[in-house]
From TrEMBL:
SMART domains: YajC (SM01323). It is a single-pass membrane protein. Part of the SecDF-YidC-YajC translocase complex. The SecDF-YidC-YajC translocase forms a supercomplex with SecYEG, called the holo-translocon (HTL). Keywords: Cell membrane, Membrane, Protein transport, Translocation, Transmembrane, Transmembrane helix, Transport. It is found in: Cell membrane. This is Sec translocon accessory complex subunit YajC.
Amino acid sequence: MSNSLLTIAAAAAANPNGASAILIGIAPWLLIFVIFYVLMIRPQQQRVKEHQRAITAIQKGDEVITGGGIRGRVTKVADDEVELEIAQGVRVRVVKGTLSQVLTKSTKPAND
């Protein structure tokens, strides 16, 4: 009896029916997508959320770096714009969305 059950199980594994064949064919793709999501998509979404929180929390006196690489101190904050002082007496208005990095007060330049 047990030999016949083993034979039937082996035959079923060797010749899968339509539903299980589709599942076996899709399983590697699902596994690849899950790995891709865990390693790439989710961390990127977290970085975007963190960047958005930093941009919305900008206050007067913060140092920021724009997307073009200009570093300045925030002198005025509006809804969608900030005014940066990039040199003494030189002020520039930029859109908040173009800010790439908000430097904290404890951040020091790399060459110091």
